[in-house]
Design a protein that fits this description.
The structure is a single chain. By secondary structure, this protein is mainly alpha-helical. It has 2 domains: about 150 residues, no CATH class; about 325 residues, Neurolysin, domain 3, CATH 1.10.1370.30. About 65% of the residues lie in helices and about 5% in strands. A hairpin with a 2-residue loop joins strand 2 and strand 3. About 40% of the residues are buried. Bound molecules: zinc ion (ZN).
């Protein structure tokens, strides 16, 4: 490496380290806001957050930093893999943000913060009108961001997808979701018409928060969560935040009459946490941790939640402990009944409570609406009706109010393009599950509780290079195949045809 290149690399690394300090503080504030921050302090705290994130933004807008980063990009072929990946990601980011001034950035953050507060209020009172203005503002921010991009794509929505899932386009998703609708809708009809009855009476038996907390801890322990480098608590809307190399926070929510909700939520968030806790140390040295796409992340959380959590092997593993922690729930419930109930297919309105089968429809609905909001500029006030109509069309049920309809998710308070990553995650993990099965007897390894074996495989094949590859290249490297929803659809058809005998 030339002296000039080394000098520029040092400058870039030093600036990124400084920006990361502000960003770390923002993550702590975010975590606080989502967990124990008093409601009246939210807006003020949002201001602090916007101020600090703007500091980080300004550091990365400094002309010397940009010149340094662009120099690295011009000389990227002289680097090893890590620094090359960094140079490419900085260049991509620069293309996206070079025309956004710090004042605009600050204004965008304030709009998102205000939208979050208004969304909370609107959801509480099930009144979409309280959120409509904010939602229009958020959409306008997305429009501005797209218009300001140096490398803007002709299909507006592609620009948003690119933020969360580099390389995936509207064309890919249309094809993938059409196939899902084609194969899943007829099967859902057969399942709904089937004579099979799944025992559900015990699902609403009540459980204390304290028992649920013990269960959450047990599940995190079981899958290999490192408690010395992570913590968990409760929140309204469960999420995971990787604050720093040795600090990953997961959250859950306890419903007294839905004991399984927190169980699968904590396994899901625990999956995200495992991904973060098992990063190569070089990712932090080279500032590339955080480049993994959301779909890559979701593939892992859903792998633990569904492919593992809802498997026969896992139900066998936790059956006894569940009886010990929730004795009144599990009284007289067999292992088979427990397995079937955890895999009940029941069209429902709330995405986060949806079963594995119908979940994909919740994403398709949001995707189809988002595409229209961004590509066709629909009237914001028409959205609640459009939302309800789609639930009726795909799932045969209709929300009674906006709280169980369009206001249920927080995501739109900070923009569009995020939801498809959830469905993509299921498709990625179905592809790598099939590869894992060639090396490991997955079902028996799970029922033996040998998560060291599962996690070793994941570390080597799935986790190691996620930050260095976009999702299409990443899935191709793991599986030797191109991205396809087929593995996922085959798995769903096989599993649910067996459970329902159809
Ligand atoms: Zn997730």
């Amino acid at each position: 490496m030339t002296e000039e290149l080394q000098k520029n690399l040092n400058l870039v690394n030093a600036t990124l380290s400084e920006a990361e300090l502000y960003e770390h503080a923002c993550h702590v504030l975010n975590f606080d806001q989502e967990t124990i921050c008093p409601v009246k302090a939210m807006e003020e705290q949002g201001e602090v957050n916007a101020f600090l994130s703007n500091k980080a933004f300004r550091l990365k807008k400094a002309p010397a930093f940009i010149a340094g980063a662009e120099y690295l990009y011009a000389h990227r072929e002289e680097f090893g893999e890590f620094d090359r990946v960094l140079a490419e990601s900085l260049h991509r980011e620069y293309q996206k943000t070079k025309n956004i001034t710090p004042e605009m950035d600050h204004e965008f953050s304030r709009i998102f913060n205000r939208a979050f507060v208004n969304w909370l209020d609107a959801k509480k009172s099930a009144d979409f009108a309280k959120f409509a203005t904010s939602l229009a503002e958020v959409r306008n921010v997305n429009f501005k961001q797209i218009a300001l991009r140096e490398d803007s794509r002709p299909v507006p929505y592609d620009n948003l997808l690119d933020v969360y899932e580099r390389g995936i386009t509207t064309g890919d998703l249309d094809k993938c979701f059409d196939e899902c609708k084609e194969r899943l809708i007829p099967l859902l009809k057969k399942i709904s018409a089937s004579k099979k009855t799944i025992r559900t009476d015990f699902l609403s038996r009540t459980v204390t928060d304290e028992s649920q907390r013990k269960m959450a801890e047990y599940l995190l322990q079981t899958i290999g969560f490192d408690f010395t480098r992570g913590a968990f608590t409760t929140t309204e809307h469960p999420f995971t935040d990787g604050l720093a190399k040795n600090d990953v926070r997961v959250t859950t929510h306890y419903y007294p009459d839905m004991f399984y909700s927190s169980m699968f939520s904590i396994i899901h968030e625990g999956g995200h946490a495992l991904f973060e806790q098992n990063q190569p140390a070089e990712n932090y040295v080279h500032h590339i941790n955080g480049l993994k796409t959301l779909g890559e992340h979701e593939s892992v959380s859903r792998f633990y939640e569904n492919r593992i959590g809802r498997s026969r092997g896992f139900i066998h593993l936790i059956y006894k402990k569940t009886g010990e922690l929730f004795p009144n729930v599990m009284q007289g419930v067999s292992e088979d009944e427990f397995y079937e109930a955890m895999n009940l297919v029941r069209p429902s309105l709330i995405r986060t409570e949806a079963d594995e089968f119908t979940y994909t429809f919740h994403i398709i609905i949001r995707y189809e609406l988002e595409k229209q909001i961004i590509n066709k500029n629909v009237n914001i006030n028409d959205l609640p009706r459009m939302w309800d109509d789609k639930y009726e069309e795909y799932l045969g049920i209709r929300p009674q109010n906006a709280r169980e309809g369009i206001l249920q998710d927080v995501h739109w308070a900070s923009g569009f393009g995020y939801f498809p990553t959830y469905a993509l995650g299921n498709m990625y993990n179905a592809m790598y599950y099939n590869c894992m099965s060639q090396d490991i007897d997955v079902e028996n390894t799970i029922s033996d509780g040998r998560f060291d074996v599962i996690n070793d495989w994941m570390r080597e094949h799935v986790w190691k290079r996620a930050d260095r590859l976009d999702s299409k290249a990443w899935i191709r490297e793991i599986t030797g195949r191109e991205f396809t929803p087929d593995d996922f659809l085959d798995y769903i058809e096989k599993k649910y045809s067996a459970i329902y005998g159809v």
